[in-house]
Design goal:
alpha/beta, Rossmann fold, 7 strands, about 10% strand, elongated
């Protein structure tokens, strides 16, 4: 399933190239990699057997056109074509936003094409997705070879629904980018219909007005968990963060675990959605640790992410960075104290996620980090 990074204004979508063995899926991705400008592509990873068949998957993140004020990043995968790797195909297919079916145009490959297409439909159904309601493009590959079937016959056998299709020769790149552009348009159209693509960034409020939108919602959700000294006001008083000894963390009243979990559950996903691109993986790691009830790892990940996020304010002490970003110093001290404790609870991890989100909100408010 697609993900949205609100801080980076980026929508990430996953497209899987599906088809029988040796139909040209990996060759297609390699041609895309060679064609896309280096600034708009990531590293291509491939695991192959001695027979040059993709054993697990190829992964190629490609940055493409913008939607409104959001950029779109495609993660392109291929699946192994061999039947006995079906478990791997299911795994790679999970969370896909669109599929390109790469069919071998040779007559002797028709049975393998049918089997692979039926397997695609079956695996999607296991994920609760109907193929006729899913972004799909057919790629008739190997059109540069002799004795290939006609496009009309391929459409009759493999494309009765009439989805977009293209004749391609992956070895020389003919038709490959047309296929990619079409599946990208279908995926973006589907994301818009599902309202996954976020609305345009609202204009900043006039100076002196109360915070609105996401920041106000976060403050409202965490009112009961927020310590008395914490504040999300736009102009908090400067605080001194220096202390002669490590801070002592006083035990707070333990609320009902279900209430803490429910509060954090409403905010899980918001942390990574607010994260700058460089800290997206750190935020996701903290959320994953919370879900796994590994509260020590969650607090550690939050502490590290906060330290990295504060560095965007420039060189200086933590106190100076906090003052520039209007981050509450008491929250930072408490988070630092939690990171030294041997035994942590669910409310400690939830508070750490809250502090991390507060820092991300402050970065967003002052326009950090800058693009480029």
């Amino acid at each position: 399933m697609s993900s949205v990074n609100l801080m980076a204004r980026e929508v990430a979508a996953k497209i899987v190239f599906y088809g029988p063995g040796l139909s040209g899926k990996t060759t297609t991705l390699r041609k895309v990699y060679e064609t896309v400008r280096p600034a708009h592509r990531g590293e291509m990873m491939s695991i192959a057997t001695e027979g040059d068949r993709t054993l697990f998957f190829d992964f190629l993140p490609v940055k493409v056109e913008r939607v409104g004020d959001c950029s779109v990043r495609l993660a392109l995968y291929t699946v192994p074509g061999q039947v006995f790797y079906n478990a791997t195909r299911k795994l790679v297919l999970q969370g896909a936003d669109g599929v390109v079916f790469v069919a071998d145009s040779q007559a002797e490959a028709m049975d393998a094409n049918r089997e692979s297409l039926a397997n695609l439909e079956e695996n999607l159904l296991e994920n609760g997705i109907r193929l006729d309601r899913f972004p799909l493009v057919m790629q008739w590959n190997k059109r540069d070879l002799e004795s290939t079937l006609s496009v009309e016959e391929l459409r009759r056998e493999l494309n009765p629904r009439g989805v977009p299709d293209f004749e391609t020769a992956a070895t020389n790149g003919r038709g490959v980018l047309d296929t990619l552009k079409t599946i990208t348009r279908l995926v973006i159209k589907d994301l818009r219909a599902k309202r996954i693509v976020p609305p345009p960034r609202p204009a900043p409020p006039p100076p002196g007005t109360a915070p609105a939108g996401l920041e106000a919602q976060l403050a409202q959700h965490l009112t009961q968990r927020q310590p008395p000294a914490a504040s999300l006001s736009p102009t908090p008083a400067p605080r001194t963060l220096t202390a002669p000894a490590p801070p002592r963390v006083e035990p707070a009243p333990m609320p009902a675990p279900a209430a803490v979990v429910n509060t954090a559950a409403r905010l899980l996903g918001a942390t990574s959605a607010l994260a700058p691109g460089d800290l997206f993986d750190h935020a996701r790691a903290a959320e994953a640790a919370f879900v796994a009830a590994d509260y020590t790892t969650c607090v550690t990940a939050c502490t590290d992410a906060v330290r990295r996020a504060m560095a965007f304010a420039g060189e200086g002490t933590l106190a100076q960075q906090a003052f520039l970003l209007h981050v509450d110093g008491a929250d930072l001290l408490r988070l630092q104290g939690l990171s030294t404790q041997p035994h942590l609870r669910v409310d400690d991890a939830a508070f750490s996620l809250y502090v991390l989100m507060q820092v991300f909100v402050r970065l967003n408010a002052v326009g950090l980090p800058t693009a480029g």
